[in-house]
Design a protein that fits this description.
binds S-adenosyl-L-homocysteine, 8-stranded mixed beta sheet, alpha/beta
Length: 337
């Protein structure tokens, strides 16, 4: 067993890994290794990096299993490192760029402020400040939207497999981002129609990304979830939406879904569910560190099943069941109470 002091030092210095991954992603190292191993000199020439420093970066990432150092000193991609490639199915490069980018990085530097005040680092306006900021900062918004599209790819197949969407006629993806999840669900369920709903700039960006084959079955609607959500769905899917908001704003969103829904409609929240008691597991760790991310960035939080039940009750819904997926995400299914 690793000595407690060394364990603590490993935990304490975790931030270095984020930046090491970020720099490798920015330099496009994984794409350059796609056709086979390369030496650090060659990679330095191609990226304009300092050869000695780049070798140190690649070696450190090889010690973490992101690259592998061959006997001749060249670096190869591992299965994990291959996810740093751009524009390949399952690419997490957009997520890495988001987490390492100065906007996110500087926000986390103020965690202490959030812990002392209970507010996001932008102050009490929480998620509205975060999303407003995004509309004024097109580069930041593009990084965020690409990050969501990228990160959701690690979960979409498990969501598609865990729930029988084929019994539905029209599924509305509320805050569906650039449409990655709804596209996966429609591809797997040829009889289903979809509506992708998000704010105007995100919907505009989504339009170019929707596969031509789905165009006839997927309608794109722009709007504000606090004003109204589109009617006409028999199910409303909200993935990574409610965790962005405090209870009051969450209730406003849920009530608008309730209003838009037919009496037999279904609500599907796809979220991490916080266990009642904290145990040590990789899934719980990622859930509870994501909860801190919500504290810092949006003022939302990850919730327990009991908290979801109460929140849903407040908006006129009854929690029916929580369908587990093969990831830390659960599908929280509710009907009108
Ligand atoms: N469901 C997607 C995106 C989650 S991020 C996924 O799981 O990957 C949260 C989404 O909520 C973003 O796409 C954001 O643009 C959208 N959003 C934020 N405020 C909104 C509002 N007022 N109305 C509609 N959508 C909103």
């Amino acid at each position: 067993m690793r000595a407690p002091a060394l364990t603590l030092i490993d935990l304490l210095t975790g931030y270095r890994v984020t930046q090491a991954l970020y720099v490798a992603a920015r330099l496009g190292i994984a794409d350059r290794l796609a056709d086979g191993p390369q030496g650090s000199e060659e990679l330095a020439r191609a990226t304009g990096a300092h050869a000695g420093a780049l070798r140190r970066l690649l070696r450190a990432l090889a010690s973490l299993g992101v690259f592998a150092e061959e006997a001749d000193g060249r670096f190869a991609l591992t299965e994990v490192g291959a996810l740093l490639r751009d524009e390949v199915p399952g690419s997490l490069r957009g997520g890495v760029i988001f987490y390492g980018d100065r906007r996110h990085w500087n926000a986390w530097a103020k965690l202490e402020q959030s812990v002392m005040t209970g507010e996001t680092v932008w102050g009490p306006r929480g998620a509205s400040a975060f999303f407003e900021m995004n509309t004024k900062d097109p580069e930041g918004a593009a990084i965020f939207n690409a990050a969501m599209t990228s990160l959701t790819s690690a979960f979409d197949a498990a969501v598609v497999a865990a729930y029988d969407f084929s019994r539905l006629r029209t599924l509305v993806d509320v805050g569906g981002g650039q449409g990655a999840l709804i596209s996966s669900i429609l591809r797997a369920n040829p009889g289903l129609r979809g509506i992708l709903f998000d704010i105007p700039p995100v919907v505009d960006g989504a339009r170019a990304r929707i596969a031509a084959g789905l165009a006839g079955r997927l309608e794109l609607v722009a709007g504000d979830v606090f004003a109204a959500v589109p009617s006409g769905g028999d199910a409303y899917l909200l993935k990574w939406i409610i965790h962005d908001w405090d209870d009051e704003r969450s209730l406003a969103i849920l009530r608008n879904c309730h209003r838009a829904m037919p009496p037999e409609g279904r609500l599907l929240l796809v979220e991490r569910v916080v266990p009642e008691r904290t145990e040590r597991s990789a899934d719980t760790q990622s859930t509870l560190l994501t909860d801190l991310n919500m504290l810092v960035l949006t003022g939302g939080h990850e919730r327990t099943a009991a908290e979801y039940r109460a929140l849903l009750g407040g908006a006129g819904f009854a929690l029916a069941r929580i369908v587990p997926t093969a990831t830390p995400l659960g599908i929280i299914e509710a009907t009108r109470a």
